[in-house]
Specification:
With about 250 residues, the protein is an alpha/beta fold. It contains eleven helices and nine strands. Bound molecules: zinc ion. Zinc ion binds near residues 128, 130 and 133.
């Protein structure tokens, strides 16, 4: 990996690093992304439409199909990979400001990261859309496996879904505010495995740069923020990210 010399020299002094991750960091764990060549929405454009909250609430067949997809999701057999582990190392070394993720797979926490801001929620929990009750997703999927094809809330009978942000649902403002604060107060911002096309996540890059941080984009394809990045890394995340983190954790020369 070739970085501009000034940036490479600055990495060991970066003391408050904010990271934004997208689906690209989890593909090495066997979880398909959305917009890549083999992405879920590239292969099935209607899937994005089925993911709206309106369709989910109004159509029981959409809910039944979505429960089957949750049951069969790759996350249940997935393990964190070298990219996830590198970011956990960064946090253990006291250099991470926040780890903002668009991913709902829980792999950052399983890799040992704690300062995680899951701006699109988590699929490891179910949430009742009527009363807000949170339940571990495996418990609900056990009901699906036992024959309930659209398991209602055990407290109020309401419709349940994964505790994720669907199209048409508002983001959690507290989580978003924390992500913006982390972008504005970092000295290095890493955008990893995200196409940077979904707002407001993508806009965090601009917040960071406008507040003086250096931006490094690690992504296989071009992003709209490449022109304002101090460096763009196209190498595979599984090798590039551990290398970047090693450069940050190296003693200053
Ligand atoms: Zn409920």
């Amino acid at each position: 990996m070739e970085l501009p010399a000034a940036l490479a020299a600055a990495l060991p002094r970066a003391s408050a690093i904010t990271v934004l991750t997208g689906a690209g960091i989890s593909t090495d764990s066997g979880i398909p992304d959305f917009r890549g060549a083999e992405g879920l929405w590239t292969r099935d454009p209607n899937a994005a439409e089925r993911a709206t909250i309106g369709a989910y609430l109004s159509d029981p067949e959409v809910r039944r199909e979505t429960w089957r997809m949750r049951r069969d999701h790759a996350v249940w057999g997935a393990e964190p990979n070298a990219g996830h582990r590198a970011l956990a190392d960064l946090e253990r070394a006291g250099r991470l400001r926040a780890l903002v993720t668009q991913n709902i797979d829980g792999l950052h926490r399983r890799a040992g990261s704690a300062a995680v801001l899951e701006i699109h929620g988590t699929m490891l929990e179910a949430e009742c859309l009527a009363c807000g009750l949170r339940t571990p997703m495996p418990d609900v999927l056990a009901r699906v496996a036992a024959g309930e094809d659209d398991p209602p809330c055990p407290e109020c009978g309401g419709v349940q879904k994964a505790a994720t942000i669907s199209f048409g649902q508002a983001l959690d403002q507290d989580v978003l505010d924390a992500a913006v604060r982390a972008a504005r107060s970092c000295d290095l911002f890493l955008a990893v495995g995200t196409s940077l096309t979904v707002q407001p996540a993508a806009g965090l890059c601009l917040e960071a740069v406008e507040h003086g941080a250096a931006l490094i984009v690690v992504n296989a394809a071009e992003t709209p923020y490449d022109p304002i990045a101090a460096a763009v890394v196209r190498e595979p995340i599984g090798t590039a990210l551990p290398e970047l983190v090693a450069a940050v954790l190296a003693p200053p020369s």
